[in-house]
Structures are given as structure tokens and as C-alpha cells.
Write a structure and sequence with these properties.
The chain is α/β, with parallel strands linked by helices. Helices cover 56% and strands 11% of the residues. The protein folds into 2 domains: 318 residues, TIM Barrel (Alpha-Beta Barrel), CATH 3.20.20.220; 88 residues, no CATH class. The protein binds flavin-adenine dinucleotide.
């Protein structure tokens, strides 16, 4: 590819802004009409409801923490009631729910009602309950020009058997997708770039789910334990020709995750595969240093396929802020959204400039961030196939279709899991989506396109 020789300082700011507005405008025009999605309006009302009351939001946040430990609908409803009781002036539907949750029958009914509501919402965010059931959905995406990465839900692993179970589920998902996907139609945009073929089967893995021992104060133990489960997964992915992507979680596990992945991938047995990737979080103030470390590794790596770096802003912003304040630590995340967005744009250029040592995936639902990536990639002389855009199922569906219609490679992150495991994921996405500063909330409020596309 030609882009690497261009000095990023030579990107003309005015021209970049002009391209961003142009590309942003094209993307916005390619969004499918929301009138065709009547269920979306319903979900939007649920989102408004959740964001209208700070205490309700706080209760939902705590609900996220306890949900993975719930074993039944009754259990789920009891926790929901306990937490909602802390909301001082509960809105009428919640007050009614709390009254019925005082009896076992009532709790079961509440649990079932919550489950029905969640099922409807879950359908939007979760592709299926098992990898086998997900195959039809993944194929439907592929047929409309969209690649996928499957995420097996079930983030809280507190015992060794739970970690084994998670590893087995990832392994099964790899096997099932790699077996089914060769029958999918040819989609050149999705399956090759200048560096070579891109696997159809792609699974995203959380290290915290691969070991119960991941602790900031004893990183070595957690790393060793997780490595024991990650190695067989990498081996299997290599045999199947599949891609394994390692998600990034909260800051307390970052060092362990990064070291584990960078060490394992250069073990002799993994030099020829599998295709693999990791995540860089732009909301962290020290992310430019992390980028430098990852890029240095990639440039000197003896591996045959380039590491894919997925650039995100970061999903644990509230957690990092609260944790730092509780301990009196300096906050590791930017506290001004525009600073985070500017850093994201700068890191985007830096990653694009580092091709072909890395494959670049820009994961965002923010039209400005995405348009910046496409514009900068082109101005650096890159081909569109050397940039991947990624979205989350349920949050980025319109953007996904718009990107695919413009011929870009887009990959949708598809959570797979049962209802209880899906709850934590759902509520987290709901809260993220209802934050005032979220791009999607701004877009939903009807902010004009030129404001949405303005430089941060
Ligand atoms: C395919 C895909 C995979 C992902 N994988 C991961 C992953 O592995 N790990 C992970 O952590 N996240 C992951 N994310 C989530 C991602 O980090 C973001 O939370 C999410 O995409 C929202 O960012 P945005 O650019 O879409 O929207 P925007 O609305 O532009 O940005 C919202 C983000 O900005 C940041 N932010 C919000 N308020 C402030 C503030 N006051 N000051 C500074 N920053 C602020 C937060 O990070 C927030 O999530 C993934 C996202 C996608 C699309």
C-alpha cells in the first residue's frame, strides 16, 4: 500500500475538515430511514425513560453489577426490587413493580415481565442465545455486506470451572463459525486487504472471563492462568484459519492483558497464525504511550500476519472515574469529552500511518470519528480496503448499513448469550447510550449534521 510514506504532518487540516464534512454527509445520507424501524421508536422511549432520572440510572448501574450472579428470574426480580427501592420517587410503573415484588409469585411475575421486556431489547443488542443459533444471523449480515465478530457473553468469571466453560464456549463458537462460513457467498471487500486474506470467522475474547485470578495486585498469576486457556484457543483458531480478537476491559487488568497477548503471539507456535488483534482505548490519558508500545511491538514482530488494532474510546469511563476518586488517584481517563475525541482522532492517524505493520479497525458510532478515519486514510494514500470500521450490534445498525452501502469494510460486534448473561451487557449499553455526551444521544436529539460533524 502507498500510505506509509506520507508524513501525517503533511495532512492539510482544512482539507481534512472538508473531506470529513463530505464523507460525513455521504454517510448520513446513506442511513436507512428510521421510519422503516417502528420498534426503534419504542426503544428510544425506553432509553429516554432510563435517562430521565439520575437515581434510577444509579440503581441500574448497581443492577449491572449483581446481574451476572443471579441464577433465576426470581433472584433477578428480587435484586431489581431491592435496587429500585432506593429510587426515592419511583415513577408509577416502577412503584407498581415494587409492590408486586414483595411476594414470591409477584417476584416471579416481575421477573417474567422484566424478562419479556428484556427479550425485546435483547433482540436488538444480542444476536442469539448460542453460537449455533447465531449462525443464521451472521450469514444474514454477511449477505448484506457486513462481517462479524462474535462475543460470548458471561463476563464475570469467579471460579476455574466458569473459566473452563467460557473457554469451551469460545472454542465451540470458533469451530461452528469456521465450519459454516466457507458456504457463505464471496464478498471480496470483507475478506482481503493489501496484507492478504482476512478470516471470515472472528471471535472476540475477554481475558477476565478466561481466568478467575486476574487481579491488579498479582498480575502474574492471572496471566499464567489465562495463558493456559488462551493458548488452546489460539491453536484451534490457527488450524481453522479464524481470527481471535482480545477485548480490553477496565484499567486494572490492562497491563496483564497487554503483556499476555504480546507475549503469547510471538511464541514460536503462533508466528504463522492465527490472525489476532487487540484493543487500544483512547479515553485513557496514557493511550499515546500504549500506542507507541503496541506499534513498536508490531514493527519488530516476526509474525506473518499483521496485528489488528481496534481503536475504541472505552466502555468503562464511569467505572474508571469512580474508582480513581474513591482512592484519591489522579483520573486515568479524560474528563472532557472533546479531549477524548481529539485523542481518538490523533490515534486514528497514527495507526493509519503505521500500516501495513498493523491492520487498523476504528470502532465507533460517532459519525465525526468515523468520517475522520475514512478521510485521513484516503489523504494518507491508503486504499479503503486497508481500513476496517466496526460497530456494536443494536447501536450501530444504521451506520453499519451506510458504511456497507458506500463499499467500506464494516464488522459488527455480535454478542451471543442467554438472557441473564445478556442483562449486564444490555443495561451497560443502555446507560452508555443515554449519557448526555454520547454521540448517539445527540443524534437522537436531532442535533444538526454540521454540529455533529464539527471538529471536537
Ligand atoms: C466494535 C466495538 C468493539 C468495542 N470493544 C471495546 C473494548 O474491547 N473495550 C472497551 O473498553 N470498549 C469497547 N467498545 C466500546 C467503545 O469503547 C465505546 O464505549 C463506544 O463505542 C462509544 O463510543 P463512540 O465513539 O461510539 O461514541 P461517542 O458518543 O463519541 O463516545 C462515547 C465515549 O466517549 C467517552 N466519554 C464519555 N464522556 C466523556 C467525558 N466526559 N470525557 C471524556 N470521555 C468521555 C467514553 O469512552 C464513552 O464511551 C467497543 C465498541 C465497538 C463499536
Amino acid at each position: 500500500m502507498t500510505g506509509v510514506s506520507v508524513d501525517p504532518a503533511s495532512i492539510d487540516r482544512d482539507e481534512l475538515e472538508r473531506h470529513i464534512r463530505e464523507i460525513g454527509g455521504e454517510l448520513a445520507a446513506a442511513f436507512p430511514s428510521s421510519a422503516r424501524h417502528p420498534m426503534r421508536a419504542l426503544d428510544a422511549r425506553a432509553m429516554d425513560f432510563a435517562s430521565s432520572d439520575q437515581q434510577l440510572k444509579a440503581a441500574l448501574f448497581r443492577f449491572v453489577d449483581v446481574t451476572p450472579a443471579c441464577r433465576s428470574l426470581d433472584d433477578l426480580a428480587r435484586h431489581l426490587r431491592d435496587l429500585l427501592e432506593e429510587v426515592p420517587e419511583a415513577p408509577p410503573p416502577i412503584a407498581a413493580a415494587m409492590r408486586i415484588a414483595h411476594t414470591r409469585a409477584g417476584r416471579t411475575a416481575l421477573g417474567a415481565a422484566a424478562a419479556a421486556g428484556v427479550k425485546h431489547m435483547a433482540h436488538r443488542f444480542i444476536v442469539a442465545e448460542s453460537p449455533a443459533e447465531a449462525l443464521a444471523g451472521l450469514r444474514a449480515l454477511w449477505d448484506r455486506g457486513v462481517a462479524s465478530s462474535v462475543d460470548l457473553l458471561g463476563e464475570a468469571t469467579v471460579t476455574e470451572p466458569e473459566a473452563d466453560h467460557y473457554a469451551n464456549r469460545c472454542d465451540e463458537a470458533l469451530e461452528q463459525i469456521a465450519t459454516a462460513s466457507p458456504r457463505w457467498a464471496s464478498r471480496p471487500t470483507l475478506e482481503a486487504d493489501s496484507s492478504g486474506p482476512i478470516p471470515r470467522a472472528n471471535v472476540s475474547v475477554k481475558i477476565s472471563a478466561l481466568t478467575p485470578l486476574l487481579r491488579a495486585d498479582a498480575p502474574e498469576r492471572g496471566r499464567r492462568d489465562a495463558a493456559g486457556r488462551l493458548r488452546p484457543l489460539l491453536r484451534h483458531a490457527r488450524e481453522l484459519g479464524a481470527h481471535v480478537h482480545i477485548d480490553m476491559e477496565s484499567l486494572d487488568s490492562r497491563e496483564a492483558v497487554l503483556e499476555l497477548v504480546l507475549e503469547l503471539l510471538i511464541e514460536p507456535e503462533f508466528l504463522e497464525g492465527p490472525s489476532a488483534g487487540l484493543v487500544l482505548q483512547a479515553y485513557l490519558r496514557d493511550s499515546p504511550d500504549q500506542a507507541a508500545r503496541i506499534l513498536e511491538w508490531a514493527r519488530t514482530s516476526p509474525r506473518s500476519s499483521p496485528l489488528q488494532v481496534r481503536l475504541v474510546k472505552g466502555a468503562y469511563w464511569d467505572h474508571e472515574l469512580v474508582q480513581a476518586r474513591q482512592h484519591g488517584w489522579p483520573t486515568p481517563v479524560f474528563e472532557v469529552k472533546a479531549e477524548c475525541d481529539r485523542n481518538f482522532e490523533e490515534l486514528t492517524v497514527r495507526l493509519l500511518q503505521s500500516r501495513p505493520a498493523v491492520r487498523v479497525a476504528i470502532a465507533s458510532h460517532n459519525l465525526r470519528s468515523v468520517a475522520n478515519a475514512i478521510a485521513a486514510s484516503r489523504m494518507l494514500g491508503g486504499e479503503d480496503r486497508d481500513l476496517e470500521l466496526q460497530v456494536l450490534r443494536g447501536l450501530g445498525d444504521e451506520l453499519q448499513d451506510a458504511l456497507a452501502s458506500l463499499g467500506m469494510r464494516v464488522r459488527t460486534y455480535c454478542p451471543v448469550g442467554d438472557l441473564v448473561a445478556g442483562m449486564a451487557y444490555l443495561v451497560r449499553r443502555l446507560l452508555e447510550n443515554t449519557s448526555n455526551e454520547s454521540f448517539l444521544s445527540e443524534q437522537a436529539r436531532g442535533t444538526p449534521l454540521e454540529v455533529l460533524l464539527a471538529a471536537p
